[in-house]
Amino acid sequence: MTYKQNQAYRATTMGPNGMITAPHYLASQAGMKVLQNGGNAIEAAIAAASTISVVYPHMNSIGGDNFWLIYNAKTKKVEALNSSGRSGENASIDFYKELGFQKIPARGYLSANTVPGAVAGWDEAFRYSKQHLTSSFNWGELLQDAIHYAKEGFPVTPSQEHWTNVNLNEADSEFRHLQRFEEFSRTFLKPDGSPYKKGERMKQPDLATTLELIAEEGSDVFYEGVIAEKIVEDLQENGGVLTLTDFKNHQSNWVDAISVEYKGYTAYNLPPNTQGLASLSILNILNNFDLSTMKEGSKEYYHLLIEATKLAFADRDKWLTDPDFIDIPLDDLLSKSHGMDLANQINKQLSKEMEKQLDPKGDTVWFGVVDKEGNAVSFIQSIYHDFGSGIIPKGTGVLLQNRGSFFSLEPSDVNCLQPNKRTFHTLNPAMLLKGDSPYLVYGTMGGEGQPQTQAALVTRILDYQFDVQAAIEAPRWLYGRTWGASSNSLKVESRIPKETIQALEELGHDVEIVGDFTDVMGHAGAILIGDDGIKCGGADPRGDGAALGY
Q1: Helix, strand, or coil (residue 537)
Q2: How far is CA 398 from CA 82, 161, 234, in A?
Q3: Phi-psi region of 362 (alpha: psi -120 to 50; beta: other; left: phi over 0)
Q4: What is the pTM of this model?
Q5: CA angle in degrees (0–180, nearest 5) for 296-302-306
Q6: pLDDT per residue over 359-398, tens digit each?
Q7: Which of 364, 396, 423, 459 is catalytic?
Q8: Angle between helices 276-286 and 299-319 (to 10 degrees)
Q9: Catalytic: 266?
Q10: Which are the contacts of 363, defined by CB distance < 8 A and separation ≥ 6?
Q11: Residue 382 φ then ψ, to 5°
């Protein structure tokens, strides 16, 4: 199949009033019901977030973290909420090294060493909605779709079937073979031990009970009540580190969004501990180039964006961690002068070698919402690896994240493990404003791929005038490594012309060709708001989602 510039296989969804795009259609529907019944963007986001935590369990869970960018149409300001959890009070380098570990295990009880922030994030955003926006729904109402799908079941997606099978592979037991965890098997496999196939109905009764408690009693029951008690009891019986005090002390924080100017627009993202710094740094570098002088999809286009990514990642890896533990010079790192300095380091004739092996995983959901009043939400929620830690504390149905496995056990590392610390987070939802109004709400799942795909969306929409759906569908690339690989490579979708791939190889890129539409590239989405208020939404065919408008 030959790729043509600005070609789309799906139509861009348009709506005059509201829009939601999510990587699972049932989550999109849950959010749309809220919008159509007078709810605001935050309320719709909570309905979608709770639903997708049930129906897309390999990518996210209420046992994970989330981050929010919220545009308040009344104040015309962008608010940022960090609801990532901190490491436990007993989580230390010495703790792991005394057990004989040189790095934190990727799976199992010892990987679940950070408090899940997702439910607290929903609650904090809900409180903001009640205080600052026109609100129509109560807390419990927003969780009803999630409860329904957990109790009555939902059809398993092709993505869930695929990643379940991947994680039953015994060849790589450190990361796979998740059936070794009893509750994982009981929850995600059929009684005979076989995985669910696409289209089969899957129920999660324990999770339904947990969600019902949260709907009735609020988020406190997750952090200070019976749910916290069940989680901590199971963790501690199996050598885990989290305590009831860790759960009780969790706080979600409103933080100052960071931004850079790009081609007359203002791009917003989350500050550290997220890699929003890297996403904005790429745009800050690209500001120094006239993309109109190069064809989209050419070797020059791909080479420039890949090299900008490497430079942004070098800054990120030097500085990114919990800002409560070190002083990160954000203003300098995102200054125009620094962007120019990095741009001048790009060799247009040669690929730059990166010594650091990039993190190969990061399974996540991003979605965006815009309501009738013009409020907007860019939201991201994750458990880190597909199926996170693989651990579900008995009786809860809560799949715990393994985000804390990204901490380093080297004391000199900027992201070294310390008690009560937030780890480097790949998650970063994005938003672009035109003047003081939102123009593009966008983001993606995919770990290291998030800054790269965000740059692809922005350049294709702003610099090359792609419509939203075409920008999402256009061939993508991913610079990084995969499990088991000893070095980074440049993965490119096979729709990129052979002559372009050959030209990139001649520039020194180690190119690996992957499928036409592979979810290795992440599940992206975007909503563009036109001058007349028409919302244009797109969803990624690499995922199982839909953009819905009304």
Answers
A1: strand
A2: 21, 19, 12
A3: left
A4: 0.94
A5: 145
A6: 555 568 899 999 999 999 999 999 998 999 999 999 999 9
A7: 364
A8: 140
A9: no
A10: 58, 59, 60, 163, 382, 383, 384, 385, 386, 445, 446, 447
A11: -155, 160
